[in-house]
Amino acid sequence: MIASNKWSIDPSHSEVSFKVKHLMITTITGYFEKFTLELETHNDNFNTAKNIEFAAEINSINTNDKQRDEHLKSADFFNANVYSHLRFRGSKYQGANIHAVLTGALTIGSITQTVKLEVSFGGIVMDSYGQTKAGFSLSGSLSRKNFGLTWDAVTEAGNIVVSDEVRINAEIQLIKQIEV
Predict the structure, then answer these.
(1) What is the rounded CA–CA span in Å between residue 102 and residue 92?
(2) Which one of 15, 52, 64, 133 has the lowest number of neighbouring Cβ atoms within 10 Å?
(3) What is d(CA 148, CA 76) in angstroms, rounded to the nearest whole number?
(4) What's the pLDDT tens digit per position in 102-117?
(5) What is the dihedral of CA 110, 34, 131, 41, to 10 degrees?
(6) Domains delineated in the chain
(7) What is the distance between the alpha carbons of residues 174 and 4, in angstroms, rounded to a whole number?
(8) pLDDT tens, 20-56?
(9) Which helix (H) or strand (E) holds 70?
Protein backbone atom coordinates (compact mmCIF):
# COMPACT_ATOMS: atom_id res chain seq x y z
CA MET A 1 0.00 0.00 0.00
CA ILE A 2 1.29 3.47 -0.92
CA ALA A 3 1.42 5.92 1.98
CA SER A 4 -0.39 9.21 1.53
CA ASN A 5 1.28 12.19 3.18
CA LYS A 6 -0.36 15.45 4.19
CA TRP A 7 1.74 18.63 4.02
CA SER A 8 1.01 22.13 5.31
CA ILE A 9 2.75 25.49 5.10
CA ASP A 10 5.45 26.57 7.51
CA PRO A 11 4.41 30.24 7.64
CA SER A 12 7.55 31.48 9.38
CA HIS A 13 9.71 30.10 6.56
CA SER A 14 7.46 30.98 3.61
CA GLU A 15 6.47 34.13 1.74
CA VAL A 16 4.03 35.06 -1.01
CA SER A 17 4.71 38.27 -2.90
CA PHE A 18 3.62 40.14 -6.01
CA LYS A 19 5.14 42.87 -8.15
CA VAL A 20 3.55 45.50 -10.39
CA LYS A 21 4.97 48.38 -12.38
CA HIS A 22 4.20 51.85 -11.02
CA LEU A 23 4.15 54.67 -13.59
CA MET A 24 5.84 52.08 -15.82
CA ILE A 25 9.24 53.15 -14.46
CA THR A 26 9.62 51.27 -11.16
CA THR A 27 8.41 48.05 -9.61
CA ILE A 28 6.40 47.96 -6.39
CA THR A 29 6.46 44.79 -4.28
CA GLY A 30 3.71 43.65 -1.97
CA TYR A 31 3.10 40.50 0.00
CA PHE A 32 0.47 38.70 2.02
CA GLU A 33 1.29 38.29 5.70
CA LYS A 34 -1.34 35.58 6.35
CA PHE A 35 -1.85 32.56 4.12
CA THR A 36 -2.40 28.81 4.26
CA LEU A 37 -1.43 25.92 2.01
CA GLU A 38 -2.20 22.23 2.31
CA LEU A 39 -1.71 19.32 -0.05
CA GLU A 40 -1.30 15.55 -0.17
CA THR A 41 1.28 13.35 -1.87
CA HIS A 42 1.86 9.63 -2.29
CA ASN A 43 4.96 8.91 -0.26
CA ASP A 44 7.14 12.01 -0.69
CA ASN A 45 6.61 12.26 -4.46
CA PHE A 46 5.31 15.76 -5.27
CA ASN A 47 4.54 14.69 -8.85
CA THR A 48 1.56 12.93 -7.22
CA ALA A 49 0.40 16.07 -5.39
CA LYS A 50 -3.37 16.39 -5.00
CA ASN A 51 -5.86 18.41 -2.96
CA ILE A 52 -3.61 21.47 -3.32
CA GLU A 53 -5.39 24.30 -1.47
CA PHE A 54 -3.94 27.79 -0.96
CA ALA A 55 -5.63 30.85 0.54
CA ALA A 56 -4.31 34.34 1.29
CA GLU A 57 -6.09 36.76 3.60
CA ILE A 58 -6.76 39.99 1.70
CA ASN A 59 -6.61 42.14 4.86
CA SER A 60 -3.02 40.95 5.37
CA ILE A 61 -1.79 42.66 2.19
CA ASN A 62 1.30 44.80 2.78
CA THR A 63 3.09 47.04 0.28
CA ASN A 64 4.86 49.13 2.95
CA ASP A 65 2.40 51.99 2.33
CA LYS A 66 -0.72 51.97 4.50
CA GLN A 67 -2.67 54.30 2.21
CA ARG A 68 -1.96 52.08 -0.82
CA ASP A 69 -2.77 48.95 1.22
CA GLU A 70 -6.17 50.39 2.17
CA HIS A 71 -6.82 51.24 -1.49
CA LEU A 72 -5.95 47.66 -2.50
CA LYS A 73 -8.40 46.33 0.12
CA SER A 74 -11.16 48.64 -1.15
CA ALA A 75 -13.83 47.93 -3.78
CA ASP A 76 -11.49 49.46 -6.40
CA PHE A 77 -9.37 46.30 -6.15
CA PHE A 78 -9.87 43.27 -3.85
CA ASN A 79 -13.04 44.40 -2.03
CA ALA A 80 -11.92 42.78 1.22
CA ASN A 81 -15.21 43.59 2.96
CA VAL A 82 -16.95 41.16 0.59
CA TYR A 83 -14.12 38.77 -0.40
CA SER A 84 -11.86 38.03 2.55
CA HIS A 85 -9.47 35.66 0.74
CA LEU A 86 -8.00 34.90 -2.64
CA ARG A 87 -7.83 31.17 -3.31
CA PHE A 88 -5.85 28.79 -5.50
CA ARG A 89 -6.81 25.17 -6.03
CA GLY A 90 -4.10 23.21 -7.81
CA SER A 91 -5.28 20.66 -10.34
CA LYS A 92 -2.05 19.40 -11.92
CA TYR A 93 1.58 19.30 -10.81
CA GLN A 94 3.62 18.20 -13.80
CA GLY A 95 7.35 18.01 -14.13
CA ALA A 96 10.51 16.06 -13.63
CA ASN A 97 13.20 16.36 -11.02
CA ILE A 98 13.45 19.95 -9.81
CA HIS A 99 11.37 21.81 -12.43
CA ALA A 100 7.59 21.58 -12.77
CA VAL A 101 4.47 23.49 -13.73
CA LEU A 102 1.58 23.81 -11.30
CA THR A 103 -1.77 24.44 -12.98
CA GLY A 104 -4.83 25.44 -11.04
CA ALA A 105 -7.82 27.69 -10.54
CA LEU A 106 -7.12 31.08 -8.96
CA THR A 107 -10.14 32.89 -7.53
CA ILE A 108 -9.95 36.60 -6.82
CA GLY A 109 -13.27 38.10 -5.82
CA SER A 110 -15.98 36.41 -7.86
CA ILE A 111 -13.73 35.54 -10.82
CA THR A 112 -11.90 32.24 -11.26
CA GLN A 113 -9.26 31.76 -13.97
CA THR A 114 -6.79 29.00 -14.77
CA VAL A 115 -3.19 29.98 -14.07
CA LYS A 116 0.13 28.19 -14.46
CA LEU A 117 3.02 28.67 -12.08
CA GLU A 118 6.62 27.64 -12.67
CA VAL A 119 7.91 25.55 -9.77
CA SER A 120 11.47 24.81 -8.67
CA PHE A 121 11.67 22.01 -6.13
CA GLY A 122 14.38 22.65 -3.54
CA GLY A 123 14.30 19.21 -1.94
CA ILE A 124 13.22 17.43 1.23
CA VAL A 125 15.17 17.56 4.50
CA MET A 126 14.72 16.78 8.17
CA ASP A 127 15.12 19.90 10.34
CA SER A 128 16.81 20.02 13.75
CA TYR A 129 13.43 19.37 15.45
CA GLY A 130 12.83 16.13 13.55
CA GLN A 131 10.27 17.62 11.17
CA THR A 132 10.35 16.64 7.51
CA LYS A 133 10.33 19.77 5.33
CA ALA A 134 10.02 20.33 1.59
CA GLY A 135 10.96 23.56 -0.19
CA PHE A 136 9.71 25.19 -3.38
CA SER A 137 10.09 28.44 -5.33
CA LEU A 138 7.11 29.44 -7.49
CA SER A 139 6.73 32.18 -10.07
CA GLY A 140 4.21 33.30 -12.64
CA SER A 141 2.30 36.27 -13.95
CA LEU A 142 -1.28 37.22 -14.60
CA SER A 143 -3.43 40.02 -15.91
CA ARG A 144 -5.10 41.75 -12.96
CA LYS A 145 -7.89 42.95 -15.28
CA ASN A 146 -8.79 39.31 -16.06
CA PHE A 147 -9.73 39.05 -12.38
CA GLY A 148 -11.86 42.20 -12.31
CA LEU A 149 -9.11 44.35 -10.77
CA THR A 150 -9.74 47.06 -13.34
CA TRP A 151 -9.02 50.27 -11.44
CA ASP A 152 -6.87 52.46 -13.66
CA ALA A 153 -5.52 55.95 -13.63
CA VAL A 154 -3.42 57.95 -16.03
CA THR A 155 -1.20 60.86 -15.06
CA GLU A 156 -1.47 64.28 -16.73
CA ALA A 157 1.53 63.30 -18.84
CA GLY A 158 -0.32 60.17 -20.01
CA ASN A 159 1.59 57.62 -17.93
CA ILE A 160 -0.27 54.55 -16.67
CA VAL A 161 -0.22 54.46 -12.86
CA VAL A 162 -0.39 50.65 -12.35
CA SER A 163 0.51 47.95 -14.88
CA ASP A 164 -1.95 45.24 -15.83
CA GLU A 165 0.66 42.51 -15.43
CA VAL A 166 1.18 41.19 -11.91
CA ARG A 167 4.20 38.98 -11.28
CA ILE A 168 3.77 36.40 -8.53
CA ASN A 169 6.62 34.91 -6.51
CA ALA A 170 6.51 32.55 -3.58
CA GLU A 171 9.04 30.80 -1.40
CA ILE A 172 7.25 27.88 0.20
CA GLN A 173 8.40 25.54 2.95
CA LEU A 174 6.05 22.69 3.77
CA ILE A 175 5.96 20.50 6.87
CA LYS A 176 4.97 16.84 6.58
CA GLN A 177 1.99 16.38 8.90
CA ILE A 178 0.79 12.79 8.84
CA GLU A 179 0.78 9.64 6.83
CA VAL A 180 -2.76 8.53 6.06
Answers:
(1) 6
(2) 64
(3) 9
(4) 999 999 999 999 999 9
(5) 10
(6) 4-179 (2.40.128.110)
(7) 15
(8) 998 888 999 999 999 999 999 998 899 999 999 999 9
(9) helix 66-73
